[in-house]
Write a structure and sequence with these properties.
Blueprint: E1 6-17, E2 20-31, E3 35-39, H1 46-54, E4 61-66, E5 69-70, H2 76-82, E6 84-86, H3 99-105, H4 115-119, H5 126-143, H6 159-172, E7 177-181, H7 189-204, E8 209-213, H8 217-223, E9 226-231, E10 234-239, H9 241-245, H10 248-255, H11 264-267
Helix pairs in contact: 3-6, 5-6
């Protein structure tokens, strides 16, 4: 894979909490326009890696490049402004706000109107700007098929709908890279099929590069272009989905089968 086409480059990232190593010298690149999935057993370091990419955690060692720029020292809001959006494993919606208002929060960093223009809302450009953002939010609502709950209080919705609203808020950021932390968790089969369809459409029709953590191996195999496997904070495999799932170390990590002797070339897929 060429670094020239990589939207994200993770270089020898390690993360420690006291004496605990969450990640150890993990390197990989996500190419522009692909769906890249990170899998691994519970506690493998998947969410820790996403938190390092989004800026929630700062790596103990190594660096992270986005669009060729070293973003390692940047806070989450600065990375969001550059085009990195994310959802969370545990829902992070404002439960007391409407669906529409929750999604509008995702547009906040795109608003150019400052305090003075806000005071002159009805006479300046702030009103026009907000209406333009509202139109884009309505487009996202239509795309994710949540028109019927657009005015509902987010905290009153079913779990599957709340996951969809959180995805809408991340999409409202207009990211070039979207990080999805277990987007199908807790969903039934029909909800998973819908979410998988939305992710594919975001990738193919909206041009978003996707980095996804997901435990449902059927979904991972069906929609991922490439897959990386973490186990105890270390990368043990990376490559095409079918190659990775046939890898002896991956089978060992998931199924407890006896480790096989594997060369570094095989591990990199």
């Amino acid at each position: 894979m060429s670094a020239e086409t990589a939207v994200l480059e993770v270089e020898r990232v390690s993360l420690r909490f006291g004496g605990v190593r969450a990640l150890t010298e993990v390197s990989f690149a996500v190419q522009r326009g692909e769906i890249f999935s990170i899998i691994g057993p519970n506690g493998a370091g998947k969410t820790s890696m996403v938190n390092c990419i989004s800026g929630r955690y700062r790596p103990t060692e190594g660096r992270i490049l986005f669009e060729g720029r070293d973003v390692t020292p940047l806070r989450p809001n600065r990375r969001a402004a550059l085009g990195i959006g994310r959802t969370f494993q545990n829902l992070a919606l404002f439960g007391h706000m409407t669906v529409l208002d929750n999604i509008m929060v995702g547009r906040h960093h795109l608003l150019r109107a400052g305090f003075v223009r806000g005071m002159a809302y009805w006479f300046g450009g702030a009103q026009r700007e907000e209406l333009a953002h509202r139109r884009e939010v309505e487009e996202i609502i239509d795309f994710l098929e949540i028109q019927h709950v657009r005015k509902a209080i987010a905290g009153t919705l079913s779990y599957g709908l709340r996951k969809r609203v959180e995805l809408a808020r991340a999409v409202a950021l207009k990211p070039s890279l979207i990080l999805l932390d277990e987007p199908m968790a807790g969903m039934n089969l029909e909800e998973k099929e819908d979410m998988a369809r939305f992710i594919i459409d975001l990738n193919q029709e909206w041009g978003m590069t996707v980095l996804m953590i997901e435990h449902d191996m059927g979904v991972v195999m069906d929609i991922s272009h490439r897959v990386m496997v973490l186990d105890f904070g270390r990368k043990i495999a990376e490559g095409l989905p079918e190659q990775v799932m046939a890898h002896p170390q991956v089978r060992s990590a998931y199924l407890g089968e006896a480790d096989a002797a594997v060369s570094p070339a095989e591990i990199d897929g």
